[in-house]
Design goal:
CATH superfamily of the largest domain: Peptidase S8/S53 domain
Distance between the termini: 37 Å
CATH topology of the largest domain: Rossmann fold
Shape: globular
Mean pLDDT: 91
Radius of gyration: 23 Å
Number of domains: 2
Helix content: 10-25%
Number of helices: 13
Low-confidence stretches: 1-21, 191-203
Largest sheet: 8 strands, mixed
CATH architecture of the largest domain: 3-Layer(aba) Sandwich
Strand content: 15-25%
């Protein structure tokens, strides 16, 4: 659910870039065969338009970081839970001095000066007019228009770098990665009847009304989540905010007053901002996604300190729209939140594989620090955010990244998979070892169904699920229902935060990167075996016993997860 942005700045002083170019032997570094579906080349880019360029430098030891992350995340490891420090992570990530020198020398030869935009120094940024970028990268920058939305972006289908820098540069951005034009925010339906929030809170029976209207009481009943207040102030739950989605405190107060009357209605969140982010409190400016996310983190993770992290429009990561910025922001903190939930994403085919790997590596860094990173899997079934006319299934990003936890959606009582729940297999990332057995078992049962429409070797997603349809919120002082995996991610994240609270209280490390723990404990989930996620003129994938690419391992069973965590 990336926003619709056009990052074009008019160059005011052409003389600022008057230095002559130094030519070197060039080599194509990245290219794509065609324009993503829905985009067309509409014009030659204005030579004076300025691009906010970013360079990802080769990191010193990314494989070592992966090994270290898995070593502290595998439940059978002797080092399980011994999360890395900020300094330990940065040693793996920081580029070698010769890499920094070589790249800065190349830029200097061409009259450019870059600044560092990541804590470990592996990302550089500089602004450059299209005319110079074309020469610098042997690229043909053009204006590409998205036909449905009219959004325009300056991109190229290929670019080159000096051959002698191939071992120093991972990628240059924005080049061949296209923006996601769809911002699929939850749809707010007609006001729902407010049920008594105290019904069956201590019973295994789920109120019948939960089949049509999901409240915090329903979540607590479905997953046996306690209403007792968390006790550990060091435990933090982060909620990402993008595309000018603002979390309204008055809406939260109304929500808590009606649907969590057992806790203080003045309970609120702590605001953090970056990239010029803000959070105005005029009720008409409340964002439906932001309201949903804070209401179902504060409303489920009772007493856990919640932080709303508002990312503004002054992006330092170029057209990544703050996705890298927020991770670098948290990596720079001495004590980042132990859980981070994000309800935004895009189709994997709009982003270059190199850039996808770089973002995934950033999630790996934060995971190694002990943060559980959760993302909504998406709301387009196997079609991503494409139409049903797509030929092959469209995986979403970052759900394909193996170093985060992807959350799908269920609905109804008893639960069945929500048909919009995005799931499938990455075309960029290979299947990680922690899910190999579970995914292989599913593919064996699937047989030849939808053969050729998806990768049989890619990382499967989602990993888990939670209820995600007919969820009641208060939005701009009105109660109503929303649906989407953007409901499911904050709900699952809240449950992880409550487990972390008990782990901290017991003197144990928090869960951190979740997936090895989750796949090692399938008994801790309510297995969802009905439904599917149609798209691309197919029925999509069927839900089956065990893991499936609709609801993952299933929905959480809080007492069973506590037991699995050693509590």
């Amino acid at each position: 659910m990336f926003s619709k942005r056009v990052f074009v700045v008019t160059l005011l002083t052409l003389g600022a870039f008057a230095n002559p170019f130094t030519r070197r032997a060039m080599k194509v570094h990245e290219s794509r065969n065609d324009v993503p579906d829905g985009f067309v080349r509409s014009a030659t880019a204005d030579p004076s338009s300025v691009l906010k360029m970013r360079i990802a430098l080769k990191q010193s030891d990314p494989e070592g970081l992966t090994n270290a992350l898995l070593d502290v995340s595998e439940p059978t490891s002797a080092n399980y839970g011994q999360h890395l420090t900020k300094e330990e992570v940065e040693k793996f990530v920081a580029p070698k001095p010769e890499t920094v020198t070589a790249v800065n020398q190349w830029l200097s030869e061409n009259g450019l000066t870059a600044k560092t935009i990541s804590p470990a120094g592996d990302w550089l940024s500089f602004d450059v007019p299209v005319s110079q970028a074309s020469e610098l990268l042997d690229a043909d920058f053009s204006v590409f228009k998205h036909l449905d939305t009219g959004d325009e972006s300056i991109r190229t289908l290929a670019y080159s770098i000096p051959s002698d820098l191939a071992d120093h540069i991972e990628l240059v951005h924005p080049t061949i990665t296209f923006p996601n034009p769809f911002a699929q925010l939850p749809v707010f339906s007609s006001p729902a009847k407010i049920i008594n929030p105290n019904v069956n809170l201590t019973s295994d029976a789920v109120p019948a009304s939960c089949a049509n209207t999901v409240t915090p009481a329903c979540v607590q009943a479905l997953y046996s989540v306690p209403t007792t207040k968390a006790t550990q102030s060091s435990n933090k739950l982060g909620v990402s905010g993008f595309i000018d989605q603002f979390a309204n405190q008055a809406d939260l107060k109304s929500f808590l007053t009606s649907l969590r009357s057992d806790i203080s209605s003045s309970t609120t969140f702590t605001l953090q901002t970056l990239d010029g982010g803000q959070n105005p409190q005029t009720r008409s400016e409340a964002g439906i996604e932001a309201d949903l996310d804070v209401q179902y983190t504060i409303g489920i993770a009772t007493g856990v300190p919640t932080f709303f992290i508002s990312v503004g429009d002054n992006f330092q990561d170029g057209n990544l729209e703050g996705f890298l910025d927020i991770i670098n922001f948290l990596l720079a903190e001495s004590a980042p939140p132990q859980v981070l939930t994000t309800s935004y994403g895009q189709n994997e085919n709009t982003i270059s594989s190199s850039l996808a790997n770089q973002l995934c590596n950033a999630y790996q860094q934060l995971g190694a620090r002990g943060t559980s990173i959760l993302f909504a899997s998406g709301d387009g079934g196997v079609a991503g955010s494409q139409s049903s006319s797509c030929r092959n299934f469209v995986p979403t990003f970052p759900s394909g990244c193996p170093f985060m936890t992807s959350v799908g959606a269920t609905e109804g009582v008893p639960e069945t998979s929500a048909d919009f729940s995005s799931g499938g297999f990455s075309n960029v990332f290979a299947r990680p070892s922690y899910q190999s057995a579970a995914v292989s078992a599913y593919l064996t049962k699937l047989g030849s169904t939808n053969a050729g429409k998806f990768s049989t070797t890619g990382r499967g997603f989602p990993d888990v699920a939670a209820v995600g349809n007919n969820v009641e919120i208060n939005f701009q002082n009105q109660f109503g229902l929303v649906g989407g995996t953007s409901c499911s991610s904050p709900i699952f994240a809240s449950i992880v935060s409550l487990i972390n609270d008990r782990l901290i209280a017991a003197g144990k490390p928090v869960l951190g990167f979740l997936n090895p723990f989750l796949y090692a404990n399938p008994q801790a989930f309510n297995d969802i075996t009905t439904g599917s996620n149609p798209g691309c003129n197919t029925n999509g994938f069927p839900a089956e016993a065990g893991w499936d690419p609709v609801t993952g391992l299933g929905t959480p069973n809080f007492p069973a997860l506590l037991t699995a965590a050693g509590l």
